[in-house]
Amino acid sequence: xxxxxxxxxxxxxxxxxxxxxxxxxxxxxxxxTFNLSTMEWDGLSPVRERVGLANYAKMFKDLVFWKxxxxxxxxxxxxxxxxxLLGFVFAAILHSDVKLPTVHKCIIFIPxxxxxATMAPVFRLMFSPQGMLQKFFDxxxxxxxxxxxxxxxxxxxxxxxxVVWEFTGMSFILYYAxxxxxDKEMLEAAQIxxxxxxxxxxxxxxxxxxxxxxxxxxxxxxxxxxxxDIPYLITTGGPDHATEFLGTYIYRQGIRQSHLxxxxxxxxxxxxxxxxGAYFTNKANKGE
Amino acid sequence: MKRRIxxxxxxxxxxxxxLAACAxxxxxxxxxxxxxxxxxxxGSADLVWWGWTPGSPLNEQYIAEFNKAFPDTKITWKQTTxxxxxxxxxxxxxxxxxxxxxxVSAGSANGGVGIFGGQAVSMxxxxxxxxxxDYADKLNxxxxxxxxxxxxxxxxxxxxxxxGNLWINQDLFDKYNVxxxxxxxxxxxxxxxxxxxxxxxxxxxxxxxxxxxxTYHAICDNIQPGLFTKATRGEAKWTDPVFVQALDLxxxxxxxxxxxxxxxxxxxxxxxxxMFLSGQAAMVMMGSWYTMNCLPDTMRANMExxxxxxxxxxxxxxxxxxxxxxxxxxxxxxxxxYATAVSQNASDIQAATDFALWLxxxxxxxxxxxxxxxxxxxxxxxxxxxxxxxLTNPEKQNKPVQEYLTNAMANPDNPxxxxxxxxxxxxxxxxxxxVASGTLSSADGAARLAEVE
Lengths: 288, 453
What we know:
The structure holds 2 protein chains of 2 kinds.
Chain A: H1 12-36, E1 39-40, E2 49-50, H2 54-61, H3 63-95, H4 101-113, H5 116-126, H6 132-139, H7 155-180, H8 184-192, H9 197-208, H10 210-225, H11 229-234, H12 246-256, H13 260-285
Antiparallel strand pairs in A: 1-2
Helix pairs in contact in A: 1-13, 2-13, 3-7, 3-10, 4-7, 8-9, 10-13, 12-13
Chain B: H1 2-23, E1 45-51, H2 58-69, E2 73-79, H3 85-95, E3 101-104, H4 113-116, H5 124-131, H6 135-138, H7 141-145, E4 148-149, E5 152-153, E6 156-163, E7 165-169, H8 170-175, H9 184-196, E8 200-203, H10 209-223, H11 227-232, H12 241-255, H13 268-277, E9 281-284, H14 296-305, E10 315-319, E11 333-342, H15 349-361, H16 363-371, E12 376-377, H17 394-410, H18 422-437, H19 442-452
Parallel strand pairs in B: 1-2, 1-3, 8-9
Antiparallel strand pairs in B: 3-11, 4-5, 6-11, 6-12, 7-9, 7-10
């Protein structure tokens, strides 16, 4: 006898509370934001002017928007590669016979748990021409002026260095866990067949961590798109928007300049980019 | 089964759309119903006062003084940082609860009355009843003009701030026998001399755009006084050669080493402020709010906040140097630093209005503001009680500080941010950063300002 399906016995009823919560809190907010993006509104005025898609048209002509997109792409590409390369190497080293492995793991991971808000003033001081790094260079008589945060050409790279310092621990811990799952006999077989350490890492271990790399890529895309705290707290998006990201620009437009409709249009674009990023990383995970 | 699931999904989507529609129901020019403004004064009131300045414990001291006259009104001070104020107050006001009194400022500064004044009750009648029909003659003009939105006075100014001058560490100038700069060459020479002695000559946190605008405004006034203000009012073009020349001079400050290395990478607060107060820098671009540091206790507290354990030093205000060589010096620009607004949704509008009037229009409240040297009082009959106010080094400071405040109050109508829209504010900050960093030419910068008009 064919079993009769119902909402109750296929589990729908159990996910309904979470689904309702999501529908109200997330999807409603998305719809609200999209609706807002078709208006000109300062966030407080009782009058909201409907402007259709004018905010989107303005966005595509806005040079700062394109600068934020460029910064996001460069930021993702560089931090993703450097951070994961370092994380992978550290994980491989810690899987070998090193002394005091727990101490090393702590040292690598501690930056990940430090709040950016507490670290931002430290980095502002460190990268100031009157700061610690400058004093170090002066002490060892290296003629370098640490004014990188004040230059549009270099400020973004300083922020990327800070992010790499902060989140390499996350890549490390995930790669470390992934490497623990690789069959040791397979690695031994490869070495018996004549593969050296580097060859084993590149041809055996790295492909074995593909799922982790894809997960990190997805986290990296999301992280790059929602980047806010570090640029806002260290450079406030400057100088001359050189470290502007979509997050900081949305805040600037929505809060500072009270263009809530335009900020909502930027938010919708951010959502679209996140969905596209998730689609491609998911595709990569399936090996397509 | 499929049909049943589809029905559930359809119901949820419909619910979302209904909620979205409800939330945006006032679009298309329809105004929301005005809040009830008929709340009468009660025997006792419990109010919350939101703001960013001057900060604890001064605000609590103001409240304590107010309570001597109004003991039944309890006021709780809720402070945010200056940068977070807009983000915090906007949803709080929109929510309509928990904000009884809130600080606003002029023009495009944080807490701009143009944005937030719509949530405040009109103060015209209350002020007229309190000070009489000639109330406008008794108060600083800017306190009324800059707080009037669509013909209604939306907040009562507490005190004015003046900017466009420099503050110098006179003790350092004396120690290294440096001439106080009056023109570009002397300014550069002073910076070079201090640099040779391991001290930063002039410090500016050029990563914080508002202070760059002060410097640019001062340069413009040095070239042609008043033109900057005219441009903000649409009476002059930003492409005028004066503004291009001012941008050139602004760039020259960076190129010639008057601005310290890496100026664009640091903020005025806390970095530049800390460098000056800790004696690492000899000059800084700050306005009249800095006068409070002439009081030894205030300066000691602020020096400790800047990680300095030194004794307070003699800081004095000087004119912005005549870098354009025109002879036009001594011009400052002024805004209401902050004003007190009463929320339309205040739990007790009368009690909240009493507080705003006491702080901004009473002799007692204004005298307290004057003596703190944090702001220049808006009530014209009140000035600092110099017999009671003792500066760190009276011999070096008394004369220049008193002259500075007298000169500032006598300056003609020249708003600081009061006439600058949020969009022009952002554009100007972008242009100044772009020109300083060399990514934008002065002519292109001026053209970009003109685009905002």
